[in-house]
Amino acid sequence: MYAIVEIAGHQFKVEKDQKVYVNRLSAEEGDSVEFDNVLLVGDGDNITLGAPAIDGALIGAKVVKHLKGDKVIVFKKKRRKGYRVKNGHRQYLSEIVIESITASGAKKKATSSKAEAKPKAKKETAKATAKKATGKADDLKKIEGAGPKAAEALVNAGVDTFEKLAKETPEHISEILSEASSRLAHLVTDTWPKQAQMAADGKWDELKEYQDKLDGGIEK
Predict the structure, then answer these.
(1) Disulfide: which of 81, 152, 166, 210 matches 197 by Cβ 3.0-4.6 Å?
(2) What is the 8-class DSSP label of residue 140?
(3) Would you tell me how many other CB atoms lie within 10 Å of the CB of residue 175?
(4) Is residue 23 classed as helix, strand or coil in its secondary structure?
(5) Within 10 Å of residue 163's Cβ, how many Cβ atoms?
(6) Which residues, 6 or more positions from 161, have their beta carbon under 8 angstroms from its beta carbon?
């Protein structure tokens, strides 16, 4: 039996006992996790398609360890401008092993894992925060490398001020963006907490000087 499931913004074809590398999950190593966004389940000649997900289908897995992916070199050049920038990026990943594939009739546990419990709590907190802090959220688009979609994802996760963003780790920021949309998973957030701290402290001149040295939020 095999299945196609969406995990942290990406789709994977998985089988029992298979090891899979996914975008960093918020669960601890050794935790059990469950994924219910199952798009297809195949068992021999029997194939079940979801619309888009299969109701009652569930993938059970265990977090083996957290790690970083291979370094990817990003090189940018503008002809006749003398502009050449070379950067490296290593994606934060989690290694999981598939323990079970349930085709139908499964019910997701309310507290199946920290990976599943935390995002739900954040969404609930985000709604409450939005009501209390209407009109008080900072303009996170002022962070170099954070566009409107990224800023919206952070606000929806309850990170709606420069002060809150400054306290986050780049790894957790990347998790929030990846969970919000697979199109945000490529963003490099290493400098975002530092930028946010300058903004929170009101050091706008210092922030502008620092951002002039960045390219899409990445140190040149």
Answers:
(1) 166
(2) G
(3) 26
(4) strand
(5) 14
(6) 133, 136, 137, 138, 200
CA distance 142 to 202: 12
* β pairing state of 46-49 and 38-43: antiparallel
pLDDT higher than 90, residue 116: no
Residue 118 has pLDDT above 60, yes or no: no
* DSSP at 161: S
d(CA 203, CA 190) in angstroms, rounded, equals: 19
Split at pLDDT 50, 70, 90, the class of 211 is confident
User: Cα–chain-centroid distance for residue 17?
Assistant: 24
Please state, in angstroms and as integers, the Cα–Cα distance from residue 57 to each residue in 25, 42, 46, 100, 213, following that order: 21, 12, 15, 11, 48
Q: How far apart are CA 95 and CA 177, in angstroms?
A: 19
pLDDT digits (tens, 9 = 90+) for 72-89: 998 989 988 888 988 888
Tell me how many degrees the CA angle 38-40-43 measures, rounded to the nearest 5: 120
Provide the pLDDT for residue 110.
Answer: 57
Closest CA to 162 of 189, 134, 143: 143
**Residue-wise pLDDT tens digits, 29-53:** 999 999 999 999 999 899 999 988 9
| β-strand partners of 76 | 85
Evaluate whether 26 touches 115 at the Cβ level (below 8 Å): yes
